[in-house]
Predict the structure.
Amino acid sequence: MATSHFATEQYTSEAFVESVGAVLFRMSTQEICVLHLLKKDEYILAKGRRNCGETRQDAAARELTEECGFPCRLLHVNMSTRAPPAIEDEQLGDEARFYTDICEPFTLQIRRLGEGNVKLIWWYIAAVNEDEPSQDRDQHEKDKFTVEFHGFADALEKLTFHMDRDMVKKAIEIVTNTFSK
């Protein structure tokens, strides 16, 4: 029996959970949404688990709206990804290519949750629908965390975890390169 030439891990559905989140921008003021976890005094980004049958994109928009209270949309951005184009006219090598106007995850985080369990977190880039009213957040959520918007530099300073900071820097770069006039 042959084995893969690549280092490979495999998880059955009982051993992994899939979450989805987004770096949420308020485009008019160039701010980023950060959640302040009150009990731990940590600053994080909005994310949550994907439900069965739900697409990653739908889960990201739902989680952002539930946690932040703002209707939002995932942004179509210009970025590089190893995913092939929507219509593949020829066999392409497995390498990064630059695309314009795509709505795909820009980061994947893998968290080891203990013996043989992992959490996969797909991250998108999103924007508040500023012309729509905010929605009331659940009281349980209000007791756990506050929702804050900060300018780019302040958001990077506030975030507790370095991995989140690095990811937000990349999101700022992508948004700036996509929407600069």
In short: The mean pLDDT is 93. Helices lie at 56-68, 139-144, 152-158, 162-179. The chain is about 25% helix and 35% strand. Strands lie at 16-26, 31-37, 42-44, 47-49, 72-74, 77-81, 97-102, 107-114, 117-128, 145-151.
